[in-house]
Amino acid sequence: MKKTAVVILNYNGRKFLEKFLPNVVANSSDVADVIVADNASTDDSVEFMRRNFPGIRLIINDSNGGFSTGYNLALRQVEAEYYCLLNSDIEVTPHWIEPVIELMDGDESIAACQPKLLSYSDREKFEYAGAGGGYIDKYGYPFCRGRVFQEVENDNGQYDDVREVFWATGACMFVRAELYHRFGGLDDSFFAHMEEIDFCWRLKNHGYKIMYCPGSKVYHIGGGTLPKSSARKTYLNFRNNLSLLMKNLPEHKTFPIITYRILLDWLAGLKFLADGSLADLWAVTRAHFSFYSHLPSLKRKRNALKHTKTSQVYQKNIVFKHYLGHKKLFTELEEKDFS
To answer: What are the E-state strand segments in 42-161?
Structure first.
């Protein structure tokens, strides 16, 4: 057993396994065990793995419980000091593991870490899903160093510093295995999208740090399971964003911030209507009704969690700053507004 286990969750992604798994094996096997967990794929992914990668451990989940449940089921069967949750549509680079593990080995307060995430198709640009590390504003809107909403920056070395962030991308997240299990892993009810933000927030509420390590670099296609324009993705993002606020905000902030977010969500819904995106408007509506119906279970989860003032939160409204204040780049945000 090696110190690190790279675990790739697959759902109907045979084309990605064929394209990217040889590269992962070639650049990882010396220092990590490579494992593929299949989420009850209906394509020939399992047969492909057995035929072409008989030496790679294959975990087969009985059903497709999404990103969250898929990883939770798989990681219960994996022994390692560190897990790396790696999307199947990622090209890794030589020595991509060692800098992250060296950083985490040097500081036991680091619970999770991500590498620099660049675009596979436009290799000079950051990639939407994680870029140079994730943040949220005071109202729960996520953004990244290198990506604010749809504005994605070129990588010119401007984010080449090791830095504490608020969340690490689930596309390529290193995490201490013991902490993953101690704090319950990813929330099964999220299915997919923002589950890593919820998990990182949970860790931060217990005093742990989430880091960005630019010495490690990977290239991500993105949208491998759900395209960026998917109404299903809209539904999951709106529902899960409200859920993570309900679960993780300090008590005195919960009601005012969620009330404000509900109003902003309906403004977003009106924008979808004006743009003729009726499927997205319906997705926002369904997301809210799902959130309201799950409030009792969310409150039970909330009551079981610790809540503290966490760091690396942008204390302004990133929506207003970006769309009305024309702050297109992360570097245009003032450092004093993060606390």
So the answer is: 57-60, 82-86, 90-92, 110-119, 134-137, 142-144, 147-148, 151-152
DSSP structure string for 279-331: HHHHHHHHHHHHHHHTHHHHHHHHHTS-----SSEE-S-HHHHHHTS---SGG
pLDDT of residue 187: 97
Distance between CA 100 and CA 27 in Å, rounded? 14
DSSP string, 6-42: EEEEESS-HHHHHHHHHHHHHHHTTTEEEEEEE---S
Q: Give the residues of the chain that fall short of pLDDT 50.
A: 224-226
pTM of the predicted protein model: 0.95
CA distance 23 to 179: 29
Residue 11 pLDDT: 97
HEC letters along 218-286: EEECCCCCCCCCCHHHHHHHHHHHHHHHHHHCCHHHHHHHHHHHHHHHHHHHHHHHHCCCHHHHHHHHH
DSSP code, position 169: -
Residues paired with 59 in a beta bridge: 37
User: Rounded to the nearest 5 degrees, what angle is found at the Cα of 174, between the Cα atoms of 172 and 180?
Assistant: 120
Residues listed for the chain: 339
pLDDT at 224: 47
Helix (H, G, I), strand (E, B) or coil at 115: strand
Q: Tell me, what's the pLDDT at 76? A: 97
pLDDT at 227: 52
Taking the C-alpha atoms of residue 201 and residue 183, their distance in angstroms, rounded to an integer, is 11
Closest by CA to 284, choosing from 262, 257, 299, is 262
Between 3.30.365.10, 3.90.550.10, 3.40.50.970, 1.10.260.40, what CATH number should domain 4-220 receive? 3.90.550.10
Q: What is the dihedral of CA 320, 323, 328, 332, to 10 degrees?
A: -30
Domain ranges of the chain: 4-220, 231-308
What whole-number distance in Å separates Cα of residue 117 and Cα of residue 155? 10
